[in-house]
């Protein structure tokens, strides 16, 4: 794993991104050669230094693939999945490039050259994915791992949940049982030798040790042996850090207060706050200008179907627990919650209007929250704001729930792009794990990643309700 501004990126993902970039550049220049067979014409073209055009082609194509989720760590690595996402990526790339060429005609390269390059890119990327998915063993890029512990926490490292794919599993070479600890892992992987941790790490060629005891307080904890391993270059991490690194969330059942207190992250510095505010204003203004026609049409359709009001204001909890009125397009019937307690939104909700059903699936109902961002009540990216009724209920039942209120809520967020829409306390706990990851590791880089993944969520209608 590589860490970019506190956000973890797998070595396999970086390998794919780097290979795609080189292949796309190659596709561009080979496409030129195929398109202009006349050597003199080709010579004239190369005299014009087309590096900028080549870079634009490669970056827009990679952006399109990222938007369609082709770099998502949870992607099921099959050829069918690749084709399903690659073909729309090409169409999106073609449309974006035509738009760019229309705005900046001085970099126009011609539709014939563009189609030739994109055809080559299609086959190059497809062949690369076949090679990497079928014949390349991505586990060789993962560290050889020893696990200190054999209890239920250690067993969780197997990712027996169906939501996890085989390529996300750690490369475990053995489990070391603590004195008096129950065994919940396969006995064949339990190391029975009574030797020091460093000796065992050398024997099994371990690159890292994950500390996953069932009970830390008053239990066996070989601090001196772990220190010896660390002094010899063997990485030592706890299970909470492992889930943060590999899964992109902070797992609640492996979390303890000292990890939050002494761990890194939680950047609330002036420079980070200023950068985030500038990003919020620029992103919100751009989105407002780009979606203004859509918003006007949505307002007209709401009036035609169910009359006024167009907007729906609802009290939500923001930074430091302060409340504000969030603004949304009205997607439910008038007085949908009159004389009723607040309730979780659900799929096929009878209170939702026909136009409301459409704008919810496309997330258009969230667009008026741009006003909340410009008023500094929300950020563009952050944990989604919740209603006071649910906040009080969840704060009483879920540890650390109030941590998500240490930063401003957002229109979109890490939990929104990584977990389906929640409609229960259990879902709220799952989403909190992603919110805690964002609160701890938020940065401009992670915000940009979330924006790209948000486009995927909207286009593929993932998690809509």
Describe how the helices and strands are arranged.
Layout: E1 2-4, E2 7-9, H1 11-35, H2 39-46, H3 51-67, H4 79-103, H5 111-135, E3 144-148, H6 152-155, E4 171-176, E5 190-191, H7 197-203, E6 208-211, H8 223-231, E7 235-238, H9 239-247, H10 257-262, H11 270-306, E8 311-317, E9 323-329, H12 354-361, H13 370-374, E10 379-381, H14 388-397, E11 410-412, H15 414-418, H16 425-441, H17 444-460
Parallel strand pairs: 3-4, 3-6, 4-5, 6-7, 10-11
Antiparallel strand pairs: 1-2, 8-9
Kindly summarize this structure in a few lines:
The chain is an alpha/beta fold and 465 residues long. Helices cover 50% and strands 10% of the residues. Strands 5-4-3-6-7 form a 5-stranded parallel β-sheet. The chain has a two-stranded antiparallel ribbon with strand order 1-2. The chain has a two-stranded antiparallel sheet with strand order 8-9.
